Amino acid sequence: MSLFPLQLRDVVFRPNGRAVLDGVDLTLSGEGITVVLGPNGAGKSVLLRTICGLLPSTGGVIDWGGGSFDPLAVGMVFQHPVMLRSSVIDNIALGLVPRGIGARERRMAAMAMLEQIGLADRASDNARQLSGGEQQRLALGRVWLTRPRLLLLDEPTSSLDPSAVEAVERIVRQIRTEGTKILMTTHNLGQATRLADDIVFLAGGRVREHVSVRRFFSQPASVEARQFIQGELPWHLAF
Amino acid sequence: MGGFSQALADAFSLLWGFDARVFEIVLLSLQVSGLAVLIGTFIGLPLGACLAVGSFPGKQAAAVIVNGFMGLPSVVVGVVVYLVLSRSGPMGDFGLLYTPSAMVIAQVVLVVPLMAAIARQVVEDTWRQYREELAALRFGWRATVRVLLHDCRFSLSVAVLAGLGRAMSEVGAVMIVGGNIDRSTRVMTTAIALETSKGDLPLAIALGMVLLALILFLNAGAFALRTSVMRRFE
Q1: Domain limits of chain B?
Q2: Global pTM exceeds 0.90
Q3: Which among B132, B140, B232 has CB closest to A54?
Q4: In a 10 Å sphere around its CB, with 0-12 CB exposed, 13-18 middle and 19+ buried, how is residue B135 labelled?
Q5: Confidence class of residue A159 from pLDDT cuts 50, 70 and 90?
């Protein structure tokens, strides 16, 4: 059963009375990379966590292509991925544990994935001793191994150097090529232009624009988006 | 002072001469406490992890009870286990009273809350860091408990050592349920108490030295193991 189109209708997340998501309306197709942009505090990370099922929305509807939410079809990679006190291969195989896959198969699949993300020679190393970029590649591989239909990436390159960013972006493109829908947040406008098919601009807990990447950067429709692109962040919308 | 020196010299000669009585008592102590800690590990650590990760009504109360039971007086445990195992008790038919098995049961009751409380704290701290990632990978609570217990294995060695220390140094409960019967249920702590009261200080001192050395040796071994393995994975 397809998860798409994924439709969010008037989704609200209001913990302790403060609206972090204030009526989000958004429709996502099952292809390509959608990048969520917006100032700090706009609700980008909360939006991803709500879609992932990590935070319960306090209002509105999330419609998964007319079907029910399949948690195993949705994966998420965080800004600071968790590395278990174990080897690289154990860490990458971790994602398959809840899928009931046997240890031998997990190890084989993990090794193949390590080849794909360029960490095969580090398989038996301590995962915590990898660089930030390598850890993020591992985190991407860990989720990619579960073959999600929708992959949520929460600022996956925010603390990485340019070469590590490039390596992560290459993997993101590969995942997209395999047919996984990607929804990611970033503060890096260059990255958005490199990766995105369409842009969702979020401010004040609402979707202000959802257009193609070309149109967003050439003809931003909203004042907020224009100011954001020009670096004139509308702070009142952030806090 | 001369009496103490003589007792100390006699104690060393008992140890040096591999006195059969001393080593019989030491061996039984190790068997009873070792088995109790092994069983306690399989109960206490998962229990602590479940209390850390689980979400159920009465979780806070359960955590308070486990913490409270950490300081359970061993004589109280001895009396309760005695009542349960005595002829008229619910497990009287098994005939376990005044056997090493009864001592193991009493020590398990003593070490489980201690190990569970330490495990709960250790696992909870890690759980806070891993929670979102494991939830996003769709780990259920059982799989989460397994992963966290494995990931915290170095820190949890402290819980096992604490349990071992409590079991080996405990005297009240094993005295009550074991009866301190010579060549049957006499362990180091009960023998030390008995021999001191009888005035046989050399044996008491010899056993005391062995007990102290064992606890130091086990702690040093666990510390060395923990340090070397942590160096690899931290």
Answers
A1: 33-188
A2: no
A3: B132
A4: middle
A5: confident
> What is the CATH architecture of B33-188?
Orthogonal Bundle (1.10)
The ipTM estimated for the assembled molecules is 0.92
The encoded tokens of residue B36 equal 């109790």
pLDDT at B230: 72
How far, in Å, are A1, B48, B71, B149 from residue B52 at the CA level? 36, 6, 20, 11
Give the domain ranges of chain A. 6-82+148-238
Integer CA distances (angstroms), A216 to A8, A39, A229, in order: 21, 15, 9
The whole-number mean pLDDT for each consecutive block of 10 residues of chain B, a chain of 234 residues, reads 76 82 92 97 97 92 92 94 95 95 97 96 95 96 95 91 92 95 94 92 90 88 79 71
**CB environment A168-184: b (16+ within 10 A), e (fewer):** bbebbeebbeeebbbbb
Q: Six-digit token pair at B209?
A: 């030295």
Say yes or no to pLDDT of A239 above 50.
no
Query: In B, which residues are within 8 Å of A75 by CB distance?
Result: 136-137
Structure confidence by residue, pLDDT tens digits, A161-197: 999 999 999 999 999 999 999 999 999 999 999 999 9
> The CATH number of A6-82+148-238 is which of 3.40.50.1000, 3.50.50.60, 3.40.50.300, 3.40.50.10420?
3.40.50.300
Least CB–CB distance from A95: residue in B137, B150, B154 = B137
B129 vs A: CB within 8 A = yes
Neighbouring-strand partners of residue A185: A36, A154
**Contact at CB, A94 and B154, closer than 8 angstroms:** no
Task: Tell me which chain B residues have a C-beta less than 8 angstroms from the C-beta of A128.
Answer: 233-234
Cα distances from B33 to residues A232, B18, B85, in angstroms, run 69, 22, 19
DSSP codes joined into one string, A136-195: HHHHHHHHHTT--SEEEEESTTTT--HHHHHHHHHHHHHHHHTT-EEEEE-S-HHHHHHH
pLDDT at A1: 63
List chain A residues with CB under 8 Å of B234. 85, 126, 128
What is the per-residue pLDDT across A119-153, written as a single tens digit (0 to 9) for each? 999 999 999 999 999 999 999 999 999 999 999 99
- The amino acid at residue B156 is L
